[in-house]
Amino acid sequence: MTDNLPAPGHGAADAAADSGPPSAGGWGSIKAVAGSLLRDRPGIAVVKALALQNKHEGFTCSSCAWAKPAHPHAAEFCEAGAKATTWELTGKRAGADFFERHTLADLAGWSDHALEAAGRLTVPLRYDACLDRYREISWEEAFDGIGRELRALEPDSVVFYASGRASLETSYLWQLFARLYGTNNLPDSSNMCHESTSVGLKKSIGSPVGTVDLDDFEHCDAIFFFGQNVGVSSPRMLHPLQEARQRGVPIVTFNPLRESGLVAFSNPQSPVEMLTPGSTDISTQYLQVRPGGDVAALTGLCKCVIEADDAAQAAGGARVIDAQFVAEHTQGYDALAQAMRAASWDDIERESGLSRASLEQAAQTYMGAQRVIGVYGMGLTQHREGVLNVQMLANWLLLRGNVGKPGAGLCPVRGHSNVQGQRTVGITEKPELAPLDQLARQFQFEPPRHKGLDTVGACQGVLDGSVRAFLGLGGNFVRAVPETALVEAAWQRLRLTVQIATKLNRSHVTRGEVAYLLPCLGRVEIDRQATGEQTVSTEDSTGVMHPSRGVAEPAAPTLRSELAIVAGIAQATLPPDGTVPWQAWTADYARVRRAIAETFPHIFHDFNERLATPGGFARPNAARERVWETESGKAVFTAPHGMNADPDEVPTPVQGEVLRLFTIRSDDQFNTTIYSLDDRFRRIEGNRRVLLMNAHDIDRLGLQAGALVTARTEWHQDDVRREVAGLTVVAYDLPQGSVAGYYPELNSLMPLNHHAKESHVPAAKSIPIRVTAG
Ligand SMILES: Nc1nc2c(c(=O)[nH]1)N[C@H]1C(S)=C(S)[C@@H](COP(=O)(O)OP(=O)(O)OC[C@H]3O[C@@H](n4cnc5c(=O)[nH]c(N)nc54)[C@H](O)[C@@H]3O)O[C@H]1N2
Ligand SMILES: Nc1nc2c(c(=O)[nH]1)N[C@H]1C(S)=C(S)[C@@H](COP(=O)(O)OP(=O)(O)OC[C@H]3O[C@@H](n4cnc5c(=O)[nH]c(N)nc54)[C@H](O)[C@@H]3O)O[C@H]1N2
Ligand SMILES: [Mo]
């Protein structure tokens, strides 16, 4: 098993959050940012950069994808965003001399944290097998060498992965390059993330993305949160939430953990709150649902509404559901209503781990509100039934017409800062989602029409040898995917790996036979090309496009922009027939935007002009207007086929020795980038190799808080032994039968086949494990 983390530190064992979590934001958040500034000592450049973060004239943050207001706060960044920026602007460099000092065998023993902490990559590198080192080469040598390799390979044996940060312009080039080369193998990080949303919402409301914008938060009168950890994952969203709370809007949360950002928030930008101990209570009702219990919980909630409506009808009173909306705009109500009436409270309580009374109370809040927003994240999407989870939430909102009216709607909170935008400009393995006919006309070629590989498919291909080359536009694929240990081992059999990156990570150290590592500018850096400084653009979680202009000097003069690198590889690989002006595009990104506008006129017409609008411009979203781009032209109610979000392996209630593990993020990490071993919000210090367990389970299984244990996956579909040893048990307030632990340390416990049925999102929130002492 790969296990390259630093040794466990102190304090983890007594880290139980029995005194309640600290509030998110506030002085702690300022201290954390100061800590991160001091640790990296990058100086004045960072302070200047932060002042322009998420401002119209500055750059869009490379942390989360939360909406950027048209009238930003003086400091429109959060702790996580400030860390991302300081991390990118580090004074440390991993240049040619660094790689002269370290063989890959040596680097393989470094922790994930240590690899990235080596600093910014500065020169193009190629692996030298004789020396077992990456060695500096020129950009031209790199492009030529990659082009030669790619021309010798079958296009469908090559994977073009995108991690979700690269701009709309670069992402457009990436998908075009892959298709001109001859493949739709375009997996991206959303395959591990919100693909359940893209599939589920498309079926339910005809839109693959959420329907709310920032304005809606000002007009809603209730908010429901499912499996999204706002204080860590999208902290700027705490502002609209706090404002909503101050208006008296109830917020009801479904989460197995009492997450601090969902419990209370103090605004570091509000002097009064900073000087008084006061913080806003965020959630008015907190339901510690069992992981995987959301289908059951939502069944209970729908049942309450439908039965209240039945009763109202019987008594001749006012309808509880929005009957006119349901009749005019939806299909499938009767089947859903029947399934909900038939669902038993015993099953609902058992599967959700919640009492009938608490669900009835939440349903009352819902029925008392005219405009409701449903917010959700990985707690819904990363399950075997992740798509059904999303559809159940859509069902519930549709019952009272809470989609397509001001102040109401579905709000999936996306992860990477441009992950939604990458999809919008054609990064998808599904040919039906890309405008292939238009691309064919525009660039005079015949694009591949067959389905490409998604992330799970790419991993399978790496394991069975059918994938021969991997090109990564950012990211840390081998650490982020399931089945890490097997994928990492098979990775070395790849013929070619090409990684475009800012910092060194495990996916670079684990490399193919021929390996290139290409250093790029970060978004915060000034991007100078032949026609001058360039602007790029990104799409936020609410479908708004924003310009982004670097403000800091590049970490090294040798760096190239992501767009220039993609264009360079494409030019060196493809026949020189001149239909794509790679060089002219690199010189002037406005020309790329004109090409994007030609490919997607509906979304991007007058792209350059509209990008100048303060606050950006929104993509059209038919569901917001109550136009349903589904097969039937109606919004669709989906009757669930069961209540367990993970029917395969773990029966509920969990009485036996098999527990359900859900993987989580700390406030001091961004995905596989680990800033420190602390998790301030959960009061866990100096150790990420922990398992948070219910005290009753600890007792029942004969374990001890503070003791070392081994987690082993309970999986009968193959003979692979999946285990991680050396984990410390922490007693924690979470539902019985469930266990929490950190991603990516526990990824080798995730079987590759254990993914959402229709979207293939790995079921990272419900891994069946056994925990044993020692
Ligand atoms: N600081 C920081 N910000 C980030 C990231 C980061 O790593 N660090 N990552 C970015 C990315 S790529 C993404 S996708 C987002 C992820 O952000 P989120 O969507 O918030 O995802 P997670 O933090 O994985 O888990 C969210 C919550 O789900 C809860 N949960 C687990 N299982 C269940 C369940 O079955 N039901 C319910 N109701 N809840 C459950 C967990 O307790 C946790 O609080 O954040 C983005 N922003
Ligand atoms: N168990 C478990 N597994 C999970 C998840 C989970 O909740 N649990 N979450 C999943 C989710 S939601 C996601 S999105 C994936 C994340 O998967 P990825 O997107 O593949 O991983 P990251 O950790 O975000 O990638 C970090 C690396 O990106 C590079 N990088 C940073 N900035 C830039 C840049 O500006 N340009 C370029 N070119 N490179 C850059 C750096 O080299 C850095 O090391 O992981 C998934 N895996
Ligand atoms: Mo994500």
CATH architecture of the largest domain: 3-Layer(aba) Sandwich
Number of strands: 31
Label the overall shape. Answer: globular
Class by helix and strand content? Answer: alpha/beta
CATH names the topology of the largest domain as Rossmann fold
Strand sequence of the main sheet, in spatial order? 5-4-17-16-15-6
Proportion of helical residues: 25-40%
Integer average pLDDT: 91
Tell me the number of helical segments per DSSP (H or I, 4 or more residues long): 33
What's the helix and strand layout?
Layout: E1 24-25, H1 26-40, H2 44-51, H3 79-88, E2 93-94, H4 96-101, H5 104-107, H6 112-117, E3 120-121, E4 125-128, E5 133-136, H7 139-151, E6 158-162, H8 168-181, H9 195-205, H10 214-219, E7 222-226, H11 230-233, H12 238-246, E8 251-254, H13 260-263, E9 264-266, H14 271-275, E10 280-281, E11 285-287, H15 294-314, H16 323-329, E12 330-331, H17 333-342, H18 345-352, H19 356-367, E13 372-376, H20 378-381, H21 386-399, E14 409-412, H22 419-424, H23 436-443, H24 455-464, E15 469-473, H25 477-480, H26 484-491, E16 496-501, H27 506-509, E17 514-519, E18 528-529, E19 532-533, E20 536-539, E21 544-548, H28 562-573, H29 582-587, H30 589-599, H31 601-604, H32 607-610, E22 617-618, E23 635-636, E24 659-664, E25 669-670, E26 673-674, E27 690-693, H33 695-700, E28 708-713, E29 723-731, E30 738-742, E31 767-773
Parallel strand pairs: 1-9, 2-3, 6-15, 7-8, 7-13, 8-11, 12-23, 13-14, 15-16, 16-17, 24-30, 27-29
Antiparallel strand pairs: 4-5, 4-17, 9-10, 18-19, 20-21, 21-22, 24-31, 25-26, 27-30, 28-29, 28-31
Helix pairs in contact: 1-3, 7-28, 8-28, 9-21, 15-18, 15-19, 15-21, 24-26
The chain binds ligand MGD (2 copies) and molybdenum atom.
